[in-house]
Design goal:
The structure is a homodimer of 457-residue chains. The first copy, chain A, has 457 residues and is an alpha+beta fold. Chain A contains 14 helices and 18 strands. In chain A, helix 5 (163-169) runs parallel beside helix 13. Strand 11 (301-310) of chain A pairs antiparallel with strand 11 of chain B. Chains A, B: It comes from Kurthia sibirica. Chains A, B: This is Dipeptidase. Chains A, B: Keywords: Hydrolase, Metal-binding, Protease.
Chain lengths: 457, 457
């Protein structure tokens, strides 16, 4: 009987016990954004440390940061085998609007083999899954086939504010050959996915100043530049009518999709009508020459997130306003550099600035895009591990969003990041009635066990 | 001794008495917009009726409307001479911020031959001036050289809400050969002006609907049209880079300035640096081929008064918003028709609507532009009357703003409107420390007397 068969039996035998333990963990209201839960964050971190201890991990530490604690542990007895850093987060989103929950967010309960409770899917349920994999392996005679370090933070839902610095400060201690994160989802129910690329983020705010104060549009209108006309002209200059970005050099560093990637995306089940319904639009709209998945996963964007100026109340006010402005963010893809992109934006704005107004630009935070190439052996191995448990072929996907901490791992630790998620996009993370399908928990335990075994040299 | 010389002597002899009476009238806090002053509005209307009675006017009536009263009177014994309708308003603006007043707004006082108090210039002081002209003429043996009707309203500062209907309902009673209004100003201190044209007004609100709800810009960005991009594209399509309006047919009905008008404007003392300082801009900006005065007086505009969409708080929110919108008003010049212009706007928006969004248009109120041609004898006569009292030549000017009631007189009574103002733009109407230079009050009494005499057949 192989170790994997033994583990399978172990997971089956201990299932009830594990689900009860998961409930205990989910019951701690570890809401990182609310100061009244500061003590609960410490309780959750210590609870996690206890679970790691029970699992047989070593060097378990609950470590203070300027914010909520970081929990670390390791098991490093696999000699020259690869070292895996497992990252996850034990903090959760607030629960409002509480009245929409069918059961209490911090009294987890199972209905129809689905665990309901805040954090069930994002991310305490998936963190717990990893701890149980470690426990199962460490109780078996063969122990872990690879070296493992864990890093669980309590600030993911508030932007991982102190984790970048923690990783920089403990770069040597956290050194690993790969980073495994289970904080994303399957492609669809029953269809596993390895996400190998994320978009980065950068942005600017444009403030346009016209006259010193608001002017009467009758007295001055026609002789003074209107800051709203100026901001509209600037914003309209960013795209052509098909949505292609017109900022000179913007696409220069974009890594082209490989034929294999395009083929992989094209094979995925994608229904345009379903997507229109999901997004709530009557038609999709994007850069020509690319499919919807290519547009949203592998092409950069320049999105105006907000525009403001003049009077926006009810009715009419004949004002020629003093100010107008807009907030812009760009989603970036490999190998775009946020610093270069902001420079190009500045140049574009400078070049297209209409006469008669002053324009001021302020910069937002920057996050680099991330990619571990689709054909990387550690990515392909993850896909194969999924396929031992799921009947469908693994989807190799990208995601359009940004997970800043992934770029940090990529950049500081210089290790490939493997996003192996077991959630579903319909599981209401960040919303009432968050849940986690327990068949994916069951499969996840086995997929991760297989993966650790598979990447052994 | 002519009647005008007698009147001159009369005004001089009664000056102190008149100024005391003006103070009594200004002391009534006739703020039309504040319901706690409803009773004061009635007191002011009755006070005005008493002044008209003392002046020797006939058929004096304080007439109820759905809002504040209208005061009417007449003197119609000049046989086949022209009939003048004198219009003015006895309501005033609120006084906030009260702490910025150097003397109490409703305890008028004279300092350096300037009357300080709310309504001194706009418009109770000028209404009072007209009443004193009537009084002076009616006490003289020759009486009035023309027939006179007066119409003083109490709702000008709140948009003359009930006056349009009053004029329509009493069209026959108000019938006149000309309408004289003293509610505007001189061109500059010592430089008289007759304003012979005003711009009209119309406008629309554009609401752009994209997705049903706000979307995550990472997940959907690149594949869904952003309503802010759409509104920016629409707004940018309205003008070229020089500010010329690009709506097809927009300028078709614009009556060209005559050579005489352009020459008259060019002769006026206009200092670009002073205007930049006044408007608070570093450069002026407008349609090419026209001077600043031509741009703001005699050319139509399309001004975006407000734009809104997405997130406008501090920092960043990576949203692809569901909605965006803008409020637009056009200042119109003779012979543009607001109804036609709104039609052209609708067509333009329809033609330029970007893909992937729905656009809804709602219309604002419409006001027609007004003009009594500069060379009209009644306009020229007004200029000549000014020149009997002022050392400077009369400026024949237009104004960029809109006075909706002027269009109503023009349209319903079909009588030329003569705007003979004696205020100054620096006299803080609508602001703390409103005042009225009494040398212009003195001259105004004589100018209006001269005008009534001059237009006699």
């Amino acid at each position: 009987m192989t170790q994997l068969s033994q583990l399978d039996a172990y997971f089956t035998a201990h299932r009830d016990e594990h689900l009860n333990e998961m409930k205990e963990f989910l019951a701690i209201p570890s809401i990182s954004s609310l100061s009244e839960h500061k003590e609960d964050m410490i309780i959750a971190a210590n609870h996690l440390a206890t679970l790691l201890k029970k699992a047989g991990m070593e060097n378990i530490q609950v470590r203070d940061t300027a914010g909520h604690p970081v929990v670390t542990a390791d098991w490093l007895h696999a000699d020259d085998q690869p070292t895996v850093l497992v990252y996850g987060h034990y903090d959760v989103q607030p629960v409002d609007p509480i009245e929409l929950w069918h059961s209490e967010p911090f009294k987890p309960e199972i209905r129809d083999n689905i665990m309901y409770g805040r954090g069930a899917s994002d991310d305490k349920g998936q963190v717990f899954m990893h701890v149980k994999v470690l426990e199962a392996m460490l109780q078996s005679p063969e122990k872990l086939p690879v070296n493992v370090k864990v890093l669980f933070e309590g600030e993911e839902e508030i932007g991982s504010v102190h984790l970048d610095q923690f990783i920089i400060d403990h770069k040597e201690e956290l050194k690993a050959d790969l980073v495994v994160i289970s904080d994303t989802g399957l492609y669809a129910p029953g269809k596993p996915a390895v996400c190998y690329a994320l978009r980065g983020l950068t942005g600017v705010q444009i403030n346009v100043q016209g006259p010193k104060g608001d002017l009467h549009s009758g007295i001055y209108g026609g002789g003074v530049q209107n800051p709203i006309h100026a901001i509209a002209t600037l914003l309209a200059s960013f795209h052509d009518e098909h949505g292609t970005i017109q900022v000179e050099g913007f696409y220069d560093d974009v890594r082209d999709l490989t034929n294999e990637e395009r083929a992989a995306f094209a094979e995925l089940d994608f229904n345009e009508d379903d997507m229109k319904a999901e997004a709530g639009v009557s038609e999709l709209f994007g850069e020509q020459g690319f499919t919807y998945l290519e547009q949203t996963w592998a092409r950069p964007t320049l999105e105006v997130n907000g525009v403001f100026g003049g009077f926006s109340g009810e009715g009419i006010k004949t004002v020629l306003p003093a100010k107008a402005g807009a907030k812009i963010t760009c989603r970036l893809v490999p190998d775009q550099d946020p610093v270069i992109i902001v420079d190009l934006l500045r140049k574009h704005i400078e070049t297209h600035k209409p006469a008669g107004v002053e324009v001021e630009i302020t910069e937002f935070d920057k996050g680099k895009p991330f990619i571990t190439p689709m054909d990387h052996p550690l990515i392909q191995a993850a896909g194969e591990s999924y396929e031992t448990q799921y009947d469908e072929k693994t989807a190799y996907i990208r995601a359009g969003g940004s997970i800043p901490i992934v770029s940090t791992f990529d950049e500081i630790l210089q290790a490939p990041v493997i996003l192996m998620g077991f959630g579903l996009s319909t599981e209401n993370f960040h919303a009432p009635n968050e849940h986690f399908h327990l068949d994916n928990f069951d499969k996840g335990l086995r997929v991760v066990s297989d993966y650790f075994t598979r990447i052994k040299k």
